[in-house]
Amino acid sequence: MDVHALDRLDNDAYERLVLDNAHPPARDQETWELLLSRPLIDRTRDTLSALVQRNVSALRKRKAEREAFQTECFARGPAGKKDWFDTRNEYEEWRHRAANFARTVQNALADVNRAKRDHNRSANHTVAQEHRECLRKLALAVQRHQAAHARAGGVAEQPDYELWRVLDQITVPMGPSSEPTSLRTMLDIYWTDVASVDTADEQRAGAERAMRTAPAGQSGRFSGVPKARHVDNGKRLV
After folding, report:
1. Cys staple from 160: which of 23, 58, 156, 230, with CB 3.0 to 4.6 Å?
2. Three-state secondary-structure class, residue 165
3. DSSP character for 173?
């Protein structure tokens, strides 16, 4: 049985299934998990809530009938009192069963409500992550716009400055204390795209950095590369 099969059950059959799994020791765990799944949890909760209300109404009605019966019996004298006391055990047993039923259903409803809160937290987290990702993409686009303008060397207009300023004005919560952190800081620390570099790339980049720091493009850091001694010594070492 799957979610779709359970969802196609009529209300009476669905209620029986929920009741069969309301008491933890009697639950079929797979069925209970289906009843608490996102597509069915609201129907399961509504079914249990209706059972709670129906039981409360039955207790209230039976209590009122019992009180009316007591009044009628006591008005008939000793014979009437005997009738009332003869039916007392039956009523108390019924009330005890109703109270146990109420406890079972209310506990099951509490389980459902906890699962519903977990669903809501998960959904809210997913939505928040989606919004955060959209904000990251927007911040990157603004940063690239500013970088492109800087490379072009043009004169920025007021709308450009207003656009770039949002990177410092808009913040997002970060860390356990949800510290407000500007988008520019997020870009500098967390959101900047970084390409992975392998060992060969890193060695090549290091060599290029060393070469740029050497006179005439040559570095004395590499063994076998002679240093220039005198410009006019005729050995053409420079």
Report:
1. 156
2. helix
3. E
- Structure token pair of residue 213: 């720091």
How far apart, in whole angstroms, are the C-alpha atoms of residue 22 and residue 107? 8
pLDDT in tens, 102-117: 999 999 999 999 998 8
Can you say whether the dihedral through the CA atoms of 203, 209, 213, 218 is positive or negative?
positive
pTM for the predicted model, two decimal places: 0.53
Q: Is 75 helix (H, G, I), strand (E, B) or coil?
A: helix
152-169 core/surface letters (b: 16 or more CB in 10 A; e: else): eeeeeeeeeeebbeebee
Helices 41-75 and 11-20: angle between axes, nearest 10 degrees: 90
Judged by phi (left if over 0) then psi (alpha if -120 to 50, else beta), residue 217 lies in left
What are 86's two structure tokens?
């003869």
Query: Of 102, 136, 120, which Cα lies nearest the Cα of 23?
Result: 102
What token pair was written down for 142?
A: 């603004």
Expressed in angstroms, the distance from the first to the final Cα of the chain is 84
Cα–Cα distance, 54 to 71 (Å, whole number): 26
Please give the average per-residue pLDDT across 8-19, as a whole number: 93
**CA nearest 100: which of 19, 39, 34?**
19
Question: Can you tell me the distance from the alpha carbon of 31 to that of 159, in angstroms, rounded to the nearest whole number?
Answer: 59
Sign of the C-alpha dihedral computed for residues 219, 221, 224 and 226 taken in this order: positive
